[in-house]
Amino acid sequence: MLKYAAILGLALATGACAYKEAGEPLDPKYFGSANANNTAVLSGDRSYRVQLATRFANEVPSTINFDFDSARLDGEARRVLDTQAKWIRQFPEVRFRVYGHTDAVGSQTYNKRLGLRRARAAVNYLVSRGISRSRLEAVASFGETQPLIVTDQRERRNRRTVTEVSGFVAARVNELDGKYAAVIYRDYVESAVSPTTISAKTALTDE
After folding, report:
1. Cα–Cα distance between 131 and 74 in angstroms, integer?
2. Distance, CA of 163 to CA of 150 (rounded, Å)
3. Residue 166 half-sphere exposure toward CB, CA atoms < 13 A
4. Residue 110 pLDDT > 90
5. Which residues contact 123 (CB under 8 A, 6 or more apart)?
6. Which of 151, 170, 194, 197 maximizes the CB count within 10 A of its CB?
7. Confidence (pTM)
8. d(Cα 128, Cα 84) in Å, to the nearest integer?
9. Which of 49-63, 116-130, 158-172 has the highest mean pLDDT?
10. Rounded-to-integer distance, Cα 86 and Cα 76, Å
11. Burial state string for 40-55 with b = 16 or more CB within 10 A and e = fewer than 16
C-alpha cells in the first residue's frame, strides 16, 4: 500500500510541475521567433526605427565615396543614391539623415565644411529623385573625425557620406496604410517565386 501511495504522490508532484496557475505567462519556448518579435515591438521593447535602420543597412548600400577634395557625385555614387531613393520611396513616413566625412588631409575647419558639402550633394540628388526634402531630416558633417581607415594620408574610403534612418515624419508608427500593405504584399509574392522563374524573367527583360 505504501508503494502505491508513493507512486501516486510522485505522479501528483510531476503533474503539478507540468501545469501552471491560471493567469501565469505562457512558456515562450512554445512560440516562434515571429511572435516574440511582435510582442517586443508592441510592448515597446524594440524600436521601429532600429528595425528599419537595420533593414535599410542590409538591403541598400548606405555609403558613397568621393574624389579627393571634391563633393562631386560620380557615376557609382549616383547609382547608389538611386538605389537608396527607390528604397526610401517605399516608406513615406521614415526620415533620413546624411552624414558627410573626409580624410585627414587638410585643416579640420576646411574638412568640416567639405563634409557638409558632400552631405548636401547627396541630399540634393535624393531630392532630385523624388524624395521630399522634409524627409531628409538634416545633413551633418563629421569632417575627418570618424575615419574608417586611420591614416593621415589620402584615403578614398574615408571620403564618404553615409545615409541612415533617423526617425519618423509623424507619430503614426503603428499605422499600416495602403502603401505599406503594398510593400508587404510585394515581398510576400516575390518570396514565392522560384529562382528559375526569376532568371527567365530577367532573360526576357534583357532581350
Report:
1. 20
2. 21
3. 16
4. yes
5. 98, 133, 136, 139
6. 151
7. 0.64
8. 12
9. 116-130
10. 16
11. eeeeeeeeebeebbee
pLDDT per residue as tens digits for the range 120-130: 999 999 999 99
Among the listed residues 141, 188, 47, the one whose alpha carbon sits nearest the alpha carbon of residue 180: 188
- What percentage of the chain carries pLDDT values higher than 90? 49
Contacts (Cβ under 8 Å, ≥6 apart) of 62 = 56, 84, 162, 163, 164
For residue 140, with 0-12 CB atoms within 10 Å meaning exposed, 13-18 middle and 19 or more buried, which class applies? middle
Report the CATH fold assignment for 41-171: 60s Ribosomal Protein L30; Chain: A; (3.30.1330)
The CA distance from 188 to 171, in Å, is 27
The residue among 167 and 47 whose pLDDT is bigger is 167
Is the pLDDT at 90 greater than 50? The verdict is: yes
CA distance 142 to 101: 5
Separation CA 20–CA 39 (nearest Å): 21
Q: What was the pLDDT predicted at 151?
A: 94
The closest alpha carbon to 55, from 84, 93, 35, belongs to 84
Strands (E), 73-127: 94-101
Per domain, the residue ranges of the chain are 41-171, 176-207
More confident site: 73 or 202: 73
- Model confidence band, residue 20 (pLDDT cutoffs 50, 70, 90): low
